[in-house]
Specification:
Length: 473
């Protein structure tokens, strides 16, 4: 048994573990041991399907201290006019670069890939390397769990429904290799299903060769409203103001969603169907137009099994001859809704989102709070975890909880300044540009912060009310 000492033991070198360590070692002198069962940093990105891209601009993804991408606005494709989206390959190369050029040269990060964490024994964090060497880490401050989100992509497990002999059902990872087919059945309508449909359409496959299994319709985010920088500042401000107005004026949850759609804050694929799902999936207007070209959308619940001549779902069966069809399983739960647990808890930190679906920003903020504030009560007040959304009502829950977190942050001028300078914070980009232009005039600056706070506070209260009313109905 080898014994090593460190202030922090981080389990998981995915996007959250990497963002946490980057801010921690920038702001403290801490030594960190990082353990991961994969061969390279980047977590699920290292096993993702080859045509996946970030859903949000690269400009605010990754670790805070190293830019991802070159802040280029796409000139072609369905993301035209918006900031670039890194491919899986770019994301993996980026994390490799961060590890080799940023973390390891500090001499304060010891990285153990291909190693399995085995928990705490006798107060020490234990792990075993591929070569079979056992380590015990004497942790002076905290064990950081950067695995709590349990991200799952289809290649990590077989399809969760039985398949008859001869039925070919693949993960999207294998699609480019096995793509030549007469008919494609895309099972699942989350972001992976959307990516798969768009990839096939992008290859020129006619939409009538696609069957899309959509157990639930989803509210979608418009990527044009999630852009960084001064180019988009006016638009982001306008959408934020329209969202606040929609919340203020809403008379019910249904009415709220209609208003959010009118305000351009949320989109849906079929205007005739009221979505019941919300999982932060993000598309552009051009992508939405493409998705609407698919006419054969099966809304009969989840797939129960696939027979040679039909697919059996919760709501009935659909005849499909397996000899012509390639099934693409897109059902893995990429963002499982896990119970929220306190982020700071004695010798432990459990990384979770503190802003809806902004995991890397959240991990960096948690590291900053850990480095800056003295006690766990204050730290937990600043970092209330937000479970991943799943249903439409979760849009209200996470928006309300995030507004409350943001209010705490704006109450603290030092934290507000940190956020305004933080690359990973899209709201900070906006506040940063507003506050910078007002920096010479403290009264103007205070007025901007105070206006933001009253809008967030009134909206959070109204969202509470709408949720209470919806339970009472
Ligand atoms: C297809 C897809 C696209 C996405 N796009 C975006 C986006 O554009 N923007 C965004 O903000 N979010 C996006 N997300 C959300 C994404 O999940 C997060 O951004 C982030 O990558 C989550 O990282 P993580 O570190 O929490 O988890 P993971 O990537 O799962 O990392 C966890 C790590 O822990 C390791 N591990 C687990 N258990 C152990 C153990 N016992 N011992 C050792 N190691 C262990 C694993 O090997 C893994 O490397 C996307 C998700 C998916 C699935």
């Amino acid at each position: 048994m080898h014994t090593i000492e460190a202030e922090y033991l981080v389990v998981g070198a995915g996007a959250m573990g990497m963002a946490f360590i980057d801010t921690l070692i920038t702001e403290t002198d801490a030594r960190v041991v990082l353990v991961d069962r994969y061969h390279q940093p980047g977590g699920h990105w290292t096993t993702a399907y080859p045509f996946v891209r970030l859903h949000q601009p690269s400009a605010f993804y990754g670790v805070n201290s190293v830019k991802l991408g070159s802040d280029t606005v796409d000139q072609i494709g369905w993301n035209e006019g918006l900031y670039e989206l890194a491919t899986a390959g770019e994301v993996c190369a980026y994390y490799d670069h961060v590890m080799r050029r940023q973390f390891l040269p500090t001499g304060r990060v010891s990285y153990f890939p291909m190693s399995e964490y085995r928990g705490l024994h006798d107060g020490k964090g234990r792990f075993t390397t591929l070569a079979g060497a056992d380590y015990a880490v004497d942790v002076a401050r905290r064990v950081v769990d950067a695995t709590y989100m349990r991200v799952m992509v289809p290649s990590m497990r077989p399809p969760p429904y039985p398949l008859a002999a001869g039925v070919e059902c693949i993960a999207p990872n294998d699609l480019p290799r096995l793509a030549a087919r007469e008919r494609y059945v895309i099972v699942g309508a989350g972001k992976t299903g959307i990516d798969t449909c768009l990839w096939l359409l992008g290859q020129g496959i006619a939409p009538d060769r696609l069957t899309w299994i959509m157990p639930r319709d989803s509210w979608l985010l418009d990527r044009a409203t999630l852009q960084p920088g001064s180019l988009f500042a006016d638009r982001i401000k306008a959408v934020f103001a329209a969202q606040v107005r929609a919340i203020t004026d809403a008379e019910s949850v249904d009415d709220l969603f209609c208003r959010l759609e009118d305000a351009g804050a949320l989109l849906r694929i079929d205007p005739a169907i009221r979505p019941t799902m919300y999982r932060c999936a993000t598309v552009t207007g051009a992508e939405l137009e493409q998705l609407r070209r698919i006419a054969d959308v099966v809304r009969m619940g989840h797939v129960l099994r696939i027979d040679a001549d039909k697919m059996v779902l919760d709501g009935g069966a659909v005849a499909i001859d397996h000899r012509a069809a390639l099934y693409v399983d897109c059902t893995a739960d990429g963002a499982e809704k896990r119970p929220a647990t306190p982020i700071f808890d004695a010798g432990r930190i459990t990384l979770q989102s503190v802003r809806g679906c902004q995991q890397v920003f959240s991990a960096a903020l948690v590291a900053h709070v850990e480095a800056t504030y003295p006690d766990d009560t204050v730290k937990n007040q600043l970092c209330v975890p937000l479970p991943h959304p799943d249903t439409d009502l979760d849009w209200l829950r996470i928006t309300q909880a995030y507004y409350r977190n943001q209010l705490h942050w704006l109450d603290d001028p030092d934290l507000t300044a940190w956020l305004s300078a933080t690359r990973l914070d899209i709201f900070g980009h906006l506040m940063g540009s507003l506050l910078a232009s007002a920096s010479a005039k403290p009264r103007v600056r205070d007025r901007i912060v105070s206006m933001a706070k009253s809008a967030l506070s009134a909206s959070a209260t109204k969202l509470d009310q709408l949720m209470l009313d919806s339970v009472a109905v």
